[in-house]
Every structure is written in C-alpha cells, then in structure tokens.
What does this fold into?
Amino acid sequence: MRPKPLKNDFTDADLEVGKPATWAVGLPAIEHAMIPSELEMGTERTVKIALTINHKRGFDCPSCAWANPDKSKPLEFCENGIKSIVWESTPLTIPASFWAENSLSSMLDKSEYWLGMQGRIVEPMYKPAGSDHYEPVDWDRAFEVVAGHLRALDSPDEAVFYTSGRIMNEPAFLYQLFARAFGTNNLPDCSNMCHEATGAGMTPAIGIGKSTIHYDDFGKSELVIVLGQNPGTNHPRMLNGLEEAKINGGQIVAVNPLPEASLMRYKNPQKPSGMIGHGTTLADQFVQIRGGGDMHLIQAVAKRVLHAEDARPGTVLDHDFIAAHCDGFTAYRDHILSIDDEEVLAATGLTEAEIDAVADKYIASNATIITWCLGITQHKNGVATIAEVMNLLLLRGNIGKPGAGASPVRGHSNVQGDRTMGIWEQMPNDFLDALGREFRFDPPRDHGLDTVNSVNAVERGDVKVMVSMAGNVIAAISDSGRAEAGIRKAKLTVQVATKLNRSHVVTGEEALILPVIGRTERDVQGGRLQFVTSEDTVCTINMSHGELDPVAPGLLSDVSVICRLGRKLLGDSHPVIPWAEFEHDYDYIRDAISRVIPGFEHFNTRIRKELAFTLPHGPRDSRTFPTSTGRAQFTLHETELLQVPPGRLIVQTMRAHDQHNTTIYSLNDRYRGIKNGRFVIFVNPDDLAALGLTDGQTVDVFSEWPGQPDRVLRGYRTVSYPVARGCAALYFPEGNELIPRESVADVCNTPTSKQITVRLEPGAHPVPAGRPLAR
Ligand SMILES: Nc1nc2c(c(=O)[nH]1)N[C@H]1C(S)=C(S)[C@@H](COP(=O)(O)OP(=O)(O)OC[C@H]3O[C@@H](n4cnc5c(=O)[nH]c(N)nc54)[C@H](O)[C@@H]3O)O[C@H]1N2
Ligand SMILES: Nc1nc2c(c(=O)[nH]1)N[C@H]1C(S)=C(S)[C@@H](COP(=O)(O)OP(=O)(O)OC[C@H]3O[C@@H](n4cnc5c(=O)[nH]c(N)nc54)[C@H](O)[C@@H]3O)O[C@H]1N2
Ligand SMILES: [Mo]
It folds into this structure.
C-alpha cells in the first residue's frame, strides 16, 4: 500500500503560534488520537488494537513505561499511546521501487517525519560500500555480512551493540548474551542518554536504582512532588494517578521552568466528568524553577526540615527510621545547615516564600512521593540532584511505606527491563558470573563503552561495526552533526528496525536494515504464538503479545534476528547457547533468565498464571537496603552555581506533543499552542525585550563551548512564552545539533540535553535552503 501523499513542503509560513493550553487530556485529546488512527488503519483495526492495549493477554503499549493499574480493567490507553500504535501498525509499507527511486544522499534532505511516514520496512536491505542506494538482500546473506565483519575485527571491542528501550526482555537478554559471548561489554543504550543519573544517584543511597513505589501508592499519597516532567505529553496515564492522589485529599507540587498544561488541570477522558466537566486542578503549587536549580531547591527544603525539627524537636524527622535504617545523618545535617541561602535564590530563581511553601507541605505530609524525569536527569548535576532527593525522602522515612517513595518515571516502555536483562556496559560481577555459569563461558569483565563513548569511538575510527537493536542513535545523540560525519567512518552499520529513520540514511561504508515485526503483531514460532515480557517503571513484569497479522510476510522478530545472527557467528564455538531452541520457543529464553537473574524464579509458570508480577525489592518491601553496609546512606554533595554569561540563555531540548523521541507524528505541539512547525524557541517576554528581540522574530541560535567553534541552528522563530527567566526551550532531536558531545552530566556521562548555553542573534530570512523540516 502506498502512503497517502504527505505534505513535506511545509515552510516557515505554515507555522501557526497560538496560546498555550491551560488543561490537558479531555475529549479533544481523544479526538486527536482517533482521527489519524481511523485514517490510517480503518475503524475495525483501530478498535481491535485499542481493546488490547495494556489489557490482560494484550500487548504492552510501546509509548512509555508508565505502570498499568489492575489488569482486569479494560481499555487503559491514552492519546499518545494510540498515536504510537497507529504509527507502528499502519498497513502502509515501503514498496520495492522506493529504494531504487530514493538514493541515500537524496534522503539526507528528508525529515524524520517524512522518513517515518513512508511506511513499514518489509525486506532486509543492504547498502554495499561505495553505493548510494540500498538494495534488497536475503536474510541469510544479511547475517553473513554482519558475521563476516565481526569476524574480521582485531578485537571484539571494535564493535558496539546499541539498544533502544523499545526492545522487550527476551530479545534484550539474548542480545547482551550475544555481545558478551562474542567478547565485548560494549552495550550502550538509550538509557545512557535518559535515566542513567537515576541509577547512579539512587544506588549509593538505598542500594537499588529503581522506583520504590507501587502503582497504587499515588492514591495513598498525601503529597506528590513532580520534578522536571511533562506527564500530559510523555506519560499521559500518569495523570490518572495524580488525579487519584487529589481525589483522596493529596496535594501536588509541580517544579518546572515551564507551566506545562497537564500539570495544571486534568480532564480524565475515561470518566464522564472528564468529557464534560471542568476536570481536576492538579498542581496546588507551581514552582517555576530556573533550569538546573533543582539540587539547590531540594537542599533548601531539607534545610527548612532540619530547622523545623530544631524548633519542634522530635516531631519533624522520622527518628525511628533514621536510627533503624540510615547511616550518615549527622554529617549530612551539618552539610545542609551550612548551605548558602543566597546561592539557592540565584540558582533557583525562586523566593524564600516559595521554598518555605514547598517545605511546609513536605513537613505536613506523612506520605510523600517524589517523581522525576528528564528535567532532572539531563543536567550536569543530575546524579547529585537525585541523591539529594533520596536524602530528603530519608529524613521523613518516605521509603518503604504506603503512599511514599522515590518514583523515577522511565521513558521507553521497556528501558528498565532491558537494564534488568543485562543491557549495560558495566553490569556487576554477580550478573556476569551467573551468565557465565549458565552458558559455560567467561564473559568479559572490563567495562564497555556507553553511548557517548561509543559514538566518540566510532568518530575516532576505534569502533568499526555498530549494530543497533531499534532506535535512532545518530539523531538521539548530542552533537548530531558531528555524529553524522563520524558514523561514516564505520565499516558497517546495522539497524534492526520497523521504520525508516535518520540512522538508516547516514551510515557506515556498508549498511544493513533488518526489518522486524512490531509489538502489536503476532509472533508465531514453531507453530505457536509466542509472547514476550516487559518491565514497567514500578518493576512489574508484564506479558505482551500482538494481535494483528504482521504487516508483511518475511519479517523476523527481534528474537529471531539475534538467534540467527548468533548461530551464524557463534554457533560452533558456543555449542551451549541453544540459539535454535531459543528462537523456536521463547519459554527456553525465560527459563534461562530465571536461572541467571534474581527475582525471575519460575518465570514461565508465574507469568502465565499471574500475567504480571512485581519484582522483589528490599527498600520498598521490607526497608532492607542492599548497600555495602546493609543500611540506607545519607550522601553529601557540593552544589555549583550554573553561570550564564550576560546576554546568554540556558536552553533545554524537550518533546513536542506529537512525537515519540525521534519519531515525529505531526508538526504540532497542541498544549503549547504550536501548529505546523518545529523550528521555534520559547523565550520569556522579558528576556526577549532584554535581548532586543521581539516575538515572532527569526533568530539564529548559537551554542557556545570553550575552545570550540560555535554550533548553530538557523532560522528559528521566537515564541514569547511564560518560561522561567533566563531559560529557553526548543525541540529534541533538532536541538542535538547544539549540544557539544563534551557537555555531559557528572558521574553518569549523560548528554546535558536540558542545559546548553546559547546566544540568539537576529537571523536571516528565508531560512537556509534544503533544511529538512524536522529532524
Ligand atoms: N508521547 C511521548 N511519550 C514519551 C516520549 C515521547 O517522546 N513522546 N518519550 C519517552 C521517553 S524515552 C522519556 S525518557 C520520557 C520523557 O519524559 P519527560 O521528561 O517529560 O520529557 P521532556 O519532554 O524532555 O520534558 C522534560 C520536562 O522537564 C522540564 N525541565 C527542563 N529542565 C528542567 C529543570 O532544570 N528543572 C525542572 N524541574 N524541570 C525541567 C521541561 O520543562 C519538561 O516539562 O517520555 C517517554 N514517553
Ligand atoms: N537533545 C536531546 N537528546 C535526547 C533526548 C532529549 O531529551 N534531548 N532524550 C534522550 C532519551 S530520553 C532517549 S530514550 C533517546 C532515544 O533514543 P532511541 O531509543 O535510539 O530513539 P527512538 O527515536 O526512540 O527510536 C525509534 C526507532 O526505533 C525503531 N523501532 C520502533 N519500534 C521497534 C521495535 O519494536 N523493534 C525494533 N527493532 N525497532 C523498533 C524504529 O525504527 C524507530 O525509528 O534519545 C535521547 N536523546
Ligand atoms: Mo528516554
């Protein structure tokens, strides 16, 4: 089926800028979700799909990792989940003629939007060295090409195996096994660019880097503090949880440089009152923080908690909890009492009264949840900020009790599961020992390359083969312009994918696209319908299998691709890895997982019987802390005031409402009032005036990094917007052009996607010719 004609000739004249919305997700949202769905899939296919999302015996929605409520409830879906599913399960396919008609160099001018909308990829494609075209290749030959390149390397460490969080547990387990059996820990993943700071910040404090709440804790919470997150767009079903907290009398504090519509008022589309009523006011307090200021805020709140305890001894801190479970309190107390109040105000842009109000709420609440996402993790101080969040929670015993806890909200639907399965360049030795025992080999022990270091190594020519299980690393990584030049040095790039994206067009000398079935599609192996599993953001393992027929014959599953590659490359040297059995029956994979990874005992029996089960978790379940001392730890962190030279702004890169990471569904961002365009920069009206600029002006955005030439995005339209003073925002992935690769978070090496120093200069109009309309 050919794609509908696609308007790919938007110009800057098409851009419409309206007023931001003041509430989120009511009836209009459902209409927005269903309209494209009906157009592209037909009503019957749409309804079939909607009825099985997140439903028992249905499939796990690929849009985000937010948890499912009671599995017996039908139809929990959201607008953006539907968009993601429509995008994947559209019957549009790329015809064979496409590849002859479109050279790689011609596709360089196409946007991510255009590439994705060409439809599903249905046959393996190979780009030989020196050619500007992909050509069809049969599966066996494709695997031979990969195996040939891998065998020819001087060392296994000259290959990297990237993973996007789209990949489910079973293929993720096999993929890391494949890489380690081949001989490398080079397993970078999207998490390196996403929630890496979460694990690094939480683990020293409580011994585990995962959420400490259950899904139903929101309804029991007296206070939820939402840090750096836009749930209306990125985790819409989380709004149900926030609404439940409100209905049960809880309060919500939203900390964000932007007044995101969904944090203000929510109309629940799955309740009659949400269709017609005024909805629920969510945030009791909106704290409009200066970008990067959260660590100072959390310390300042902690200081107020300590002062309140001094004023009313024995009534504020949870002394029993601290005495029974924590170390390091005294040193932490001294440290926090000495923080510089003036620096706090400069860093946060807040008033004393605003911080007092947050602290009063925290002190009054007997059960507090703090949630966070990228507004915290993608800053230079992300790890320390999360460690301070843990300190604050420990002060009042907000770990391991109902309605309380740390709630990092993961992004990709299975990014957390992939990590549990061993997708990490630095898995601990007990995991490697167990893996080695199960498959009778000695896994490599040296830490591998994370995503930033992998792309750097490709650029230096040290890595020659890059295999990607899903994802779009070239667009998702910082300094994307530089990454595009660098990846061309690779000998071979391999993309296991469902749909075309930028990383398929900007390739190594040779390149392969290996097309797979999506999560909505039936995966039949050995005559039986197989299922796979995922882990959501509250550590629950869910069963998932597709309902639709694969969009074309001849597609493989992610599992099949890895098994066949494994047989081709390693079959003889590793007779104990039963690739054929694994491919034939996924129960064998789960049996292996149950022997290697704690918490998965009796995996097959349990998942079949219970359909979902939650992994055991010491801090949450029994206030036992798997740290080196067996106790939770208060940790100490020094702040650094983010210095911004005069005339400069701190820019963050964020998601529009109609995109999933590098996948662009449309050029609209409804809640922020943007239509038909993405080249906009949101700036506070006072900053615009101070810079001598006006709303609607065309500007060039320059990012500055010491010792390097400026990076630039040209032809952006300023949008006067109520963003915090001194801060600005534009969209990811386009914004990756501006982020120096060197600009990474301390400790965890995550690109500082929410923190770039930029200068705006009046720009030339019209904008440069040949610019893809969105990347
Ligand atoms: N529909 C849809 N769903 C998605 C995704 C998608 O692209 N589309 N992506 C998925 C993935 S992989 C992820 S990781 C998540 C991302 O989910 P989010 O983290 O919500 O994603 P962003 O759009 O990057 O929004 C970051 C938020 O942090 C705020 N922020 C920026 N800087 C600061 C700061 O210094 N302090 C504070 N307090 N706030 C700040 C921004 O204003 C914005 O509201 O969503 C997942 N779900
Ligand atoms: N500047 C900036 N950069 C960022 C961010 C930011 O906020 N700002 N966010 C970062 C974050 S949080 C993340 S998670 C990364 C995302 O980085 P990635 O995970 O690498 O990127 P995605 O856009 O999610 O990948 C989408 C592609 O996955 C493939 N795909 C989809 N479904 C499947 C499937 O079922 N199987 C297979 N094999 N392939 C599939 C499709 O080909 C699709 O084009 O980007 C990071 N980069
Ligand atoms: Mo993410």
